[in-house]
Amino acid sequence: MSLQDSIDSFVQRGLDEHTVPKIRDDKIFHDPLRGTQKLYKHEVALIDTIFVQRLKRVHQTGFACQVYPSATHTRFEHSLGTLFFATRMFNSIMAQYPDLCSPDALRTIRMAALLHDIGSLPFSHSSEIFIRSLSEIQDLKKDPLLANCKAHEILSFLILHSKPFQDFLNDEIAKKYMVGFDREKIPLLVVGTTKNPGVEKFQADIINGTFDSDKLDYITRDSYYTGLPMSVDIDRLMQSLTLPEKDELKQTRLMVDIKGIPCLEQMLFNKIYLFSSVYHHHKIRAIECMLTNMYDLAYSENRKFDESILRYDDCSVFGYFYQHTHSSGRRVMKKMISSLQSRRLFMRSLVFSPQTIEERTRVDLQSLTKKAEVSEKIFEIRNKLSKLVGCQPYEIAIDLPPIPYVREVTHELIRVGPKKISPLKDLYPIDEWLRSYSENKWKGHVFTLEEYREKAFNEAVDLLSSEYGITFSEYSKDFAKYPET
């Protein structure tokens, strides 16, 4: 059975078990960032499905609330924020190009924005570190349509593309509420494409593009709820949105006028700042490594994607892990769950950074970080290290996060003058920013429990030197902040 077939069965069960009542009225909701907004009856019906309701229990930033206590916002409110920005972006284009826009197109875009994260896993991107390496996900990425998609985007596409969900959109939404939209286009928009890119590519760009409604919401929302002061001139950016003139490009891609570059600079700066302060914070990465080890143990007997995990959220997923683990590993799993829930977390044993590694061996570090892109390869190194340390493989982790990927700079097109379009990378020094990030802010780690820190430090230094040619400086231990003796 293919993964699409499994998802079809999963969606059908969900629709059978939880019927959506008839919605009588439009609804008004209030958001601390977006103000007072309106949801139409058919959109409220979508929200009342089990698939969207689950997002209320999935944190937007995974484990960030363990470091930033107020970062408890969810995928659900982010989806509403994405809907808000998608509407503003579409209306901005419609004011300039009314012939390319229609009420049905706006309804389709709003529904795609509302449903774009429907495939999010428990703890959001934290789960993708493991799930993205499973063979079913890797096989789907061979399809050009999904090649550049993250795991949760692929899962969202499969759910929305499934026959049961398409039938639901037709029978329970379009017909019941007598609204027009293109149900087949919704999953395509979520993965950044459309049926007719020559005319409609800007619609896909609004949902999944370089500077899309998703980024506009998560960058501003994550900064607000973590308490990190950032700003983006949203109003100016909306005024700067434009499309190519006729015959200028083969596709009607969403572009930004050169006057909007300061707004894009704000977004890029904020994104990199969020990486260094939140997404790559060492304690958050340590917890994510603990979660990855839980997945590794739970899937140790069967390395195939289990679609039933899409029923679970940040609270119930621990029960899933325990039940999904072979009986021989449940004692270890119970201990891991207890440690995470009571915040007995992994600690830094060894820090990888340009400041802790001898300059002549930094090229070898780059080859090691390449291995880290595949979970199985990093697990092999972890397993070797655990034997040397004398601990369980699940009590230690090696974390080598990628340098932030800023595709916006290489893909975003800027209108610099009449009949003149340039990529943002020709106008913006992003290479210098990323080089500075890698030289000053990037860090990898060996994490483990407190009782194994010293032993893991010594064994990791020897293992990485003998097998991977990486030599650590005499100051490397200082960066892990061991207690003074």
Description:
- The protein has 485 residues and is of the alpha+beta class.
- It has 3 domains: 3-279, Hypothetical protein af1432; 346-403 and 442-485; 408-436, no CATH class.
- The protein has 22 helices and 9 strands.
- It has a 4-stranded mixed sheet.
- Helix 6 crosses helix 15.
- It is globular, with a radius of gyration of 23 Å.
- The mean pLDDT is 91.
Question: Quick summary of this structure?
Answer:
This protein is an alpha+beta fold and 485 residues long. 52% of the residues lie in helices and 8% in strands. The protein has 22 helices and 9 strands.
How do the strands and helices of this protein lay out in sequence?
Elements: H1 3-17, E1 27-31, E2 35-39, H2 41-47, H3 50-53, H4 75-96, H5 103-115, H6 125-131, H7 135-140, H8 151-161, H9 163-177, H10 185-190, H11 197-207, H12 213-226, H13 234-240, E3 241-242, E4 255-257, H14 261-279, H15 282-298, H16 317-324, H17 330-341, E5 347-352, H18 362-371, H19 375-389, E6 396-399, H20 407-411, E7 413-417, E8 420-423, H21 430-440, E9 444-448, H22 453-468
Parallel strand pairs: 4-7
Antiparallel strand pairs: 1-2, 3-4, 5-9, 6-9, 7-8
Helix pairs in contact: 1-9, 4-5, 4-12, 5-11, 6-15, 12-14, 15-16, 15-17, 16-17, 19-22
